[in-house]
Design a protein that fits this description.
Blueprint lengths: L1 H35 L2 H10 L1 H24 L5 H4 L2
Length: about 80
Amino acid sequence: MHQIRRAIEVLFVLTLAALLLGGVVFVAGQALALISGQGGWLEFLNESIKAPMCIAASICAFAGFLLSYKRHQNQGQPQEATTR
């Protein structure tokens, strides 16, 4: 069971990092496009980065939900049983 939790933690961290990096690129790209007056850049960012960011956000949220659910189940057990 610990291996599954560890895999979910890794998935959570990876998708969170991808989401944060994608958000920085998306917002910085929009700012540059607006400053330079390039409407095509806005379309490109919206078509290429927005969908993967939404997918990463969904996976990250689901993994976070699973991690928080498991933590609530273990609260009634002694500390030694939860550290294995």
